[in-house]
Specification:
Alpha-Beta Plaits; two-stranded antiparallel ribbon
């Protein structure tokens, strides 16, 4: 984190997932632009570990590997009647205060979405989990690859059980 003593803000460098760094198509809709902006903004809030749950992130990465269009995991934007309804699903990093992180996400996402779209925006922040220091979260990509491997992934527990039974 960098801090400029003359500024009233801090700059936090955030590593973005690949789907957030690829160029948007020329015909991208307002909802698509807002979804990308919301995801980048939410990931930049201190205390946000990641967006979306394990299943949605794994499915998104699997779709991307198969060459299908990948969405923005953890963000849903609905446009209607001249307003935007945004839903952001986050996992908060322990020991950050959950309510404070959710409030900050709501505030920053609302400002960013309104700046991009110019439309009145309502933001619903859902905290899916708290990621603590002892959480052993497997990579979503690893879980998706294991699920698509089918028989290979199914044989691993049997191999491990056979090895355990063979030990004295």
């Amino acid at each position: 984190m960098q801090h400029d003593p003359n500024a009233h803000t801090q700059v936090t460098e955030v590593v973005l997932p690949a789907e957030l760094t690829e160029p948007l198509p020329d015909d991208a809709t307002t909802a698509t632009l807002v979804a990308r902006t919301v995801a980048e903004t939410a990931l930049g809030v201190p205390g946000v570990h990641h967006l979306g749950g394990i299943a949605s992130r794994a499915a998104d990465q699997l779709r991307e590997r198969l060459g299908r269009s990948a969405g923005t995991a953890g963000v849903q934007v609905d446009e209607g009647d001249g307003t935007l309804d945004v839903q952001v699903s986050v996992v908060v990093t322990y020991p950050q205060p959950v309510v404070a992180v959710a409030d900050e996400v709501r505030e920053q996402v609302t400002a960013a979405a309104q700046q991009v779209s110019g439309l009145p925006t309502s933001v619903d922040v859902r905290v899916l989990d708290v990621h603590g220091p002892f959480d052993d979260e497997p990579s979503p990509l690893g879980g998706a690859a294991a699920a698509s491997a089918g028989t290979e992934a199914a044989s691993r527990p049997a191999d491990a059980a056979a090895e355990a039974a063979a030990r004295p």
